[in-house]
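The methods section describes the discrete structure representation at length, but only in general terms. What matters is that the chain and its backbone geometry are given together, residue for residue. For illustration, here is how one protein appears when written out as sequence plus structure tokens:
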Amino acid sequence: MTRPAAPHAAPARLPVLVVAGTHSGCGKTTATLALLAALTRRGLRVQSLKAGPDYIDPGLHAAVTGRPGWNLDGWMCGPEGVRRSFARAVRAGEPDAIPDIAVIEGVMGLFDGASAEGGQGSTAEAAALLDAPVLLVADVRGMSRSVAALVAGYTRFDPALRFAGVVCNRVGGPGHRDLLRGALAAHCPDVPLLGLLPRDEAVALPSRHLGLVQAHEHHWADLTARLADWFEAGLAAAGQSLDGLLARCAAMAPEPPRPAAPATLPPATVTATHLTEGAPRRVRVGIARDAAFSFLYPENLFLVEAAGAEPVFFSPLDGAELPPGLGGLLLPGGYPELHAARLAANGPMLDAVRAFAALGRPVHGECGGFMYLMRSITDAAGVRHAMTGCLPARCRMDGRLRSLGYREAHTLAPSPFGPAGTALRGHEFHYSHLEPGAPGDDPAAPALPAIPVWTLRDRNGAPLGPEGLRAGSVSGSYVHLHFGSNPDAARAFVAACAAPGDIACP
């Protein structure tokens, strides 16, 4: 299958494939990247998405496809939010780059999500909401006839799911392949065997403390070719081909999703001021983006733009000054601890952020951005690096995970996100911890009162207490927000950036 000559109309039914795993670590990210590489090499326009809150995998997808990878998350954004996010992602290239196929990488195992009793936040939930067929990736290392029990269990567990087939990963030699084929043919004849992917360290992806290493750290020209070759060889070993897989996806293409209502939290918790989406008023919002700060949901950027903002990117690592004419700053998460020495050495940018914060304009940092707004970061080697000092706290990297999980945040006071009680959802995942600055520990630092930003609840609604810090118009938190959980908060933030004068919180 080759891409039609441009321009071309979107197909009535867009082929969609969900690449799901039997468990975390089964190789679904490698299989997804290999499939994306093979499709892109064929000349197809591919829109990738990622189930769950992860930032790193969508960045890897984007490096292969050339299109931003979007997230689908039923816990953070709700069922309608999943449909809305998908529709926005596949329309993002209009009118000249409508995708030929969408590929969704799952999270953890197929049925793993926010709850052991239900499917909220799982890959299975996203597949069912979109009526998209699932390609199951099974790690078959050390397994022969048992593969049939594994595949049968996964494919029959939820009757609402449709399966395109199964791909066996980490397959051994010819004898192993024969055993796998025989077991699946005998016990799962209704589940097509679409691939036998061999064990190959040449396509392995390295990891670090927050997951796989980021996209900019790979040599993609060589890696994409190896991935595509590996995937197509695995198809051939199962008697399949890329053309056959594409034909199967086209035959199983779901109906276009119906228009989705705006996704919000329950009405009683949504209190942010409503503004007109797409209003002509424009305000420039500075957004940090470089190797240290790259964890930004594409939908957050979409909603900020839709609310009337002009995103302007800058680099705390390499820039000497902020872009002119800004109304506010957003500092996303990332890996500032890996670049702490360079961040600390860039005095002009530290000064520029301090000066901007002193104007009383909205400044918010998430996780890594939060760390940059503190007085210092102490890295894993115990070396302290001075940061902006906009928030009166310090942080220290730990050797163990400090926090992981979904979060629902309720603001404790009026803020750029809306009035007190504004609710948003997001995710927390970090290895550093907060060390509140002791009185007098830094005589040169301004004496700012440190006040929590919000109170948090976990995925089950259990209270976790106050979290984050705000001082004047500056706020920060370890929570990565998804504005899709409450688009009104994005509109309120843009309105605060556009407002005259300072917006220092009471």
Remarks:
- Confidence is low (pLDDT under 50) at residues 1-10, 208-212, 259-278.
- The chain has 13 helices and 26 strands.
- The first strand starts at residue 16 and ends at 21.
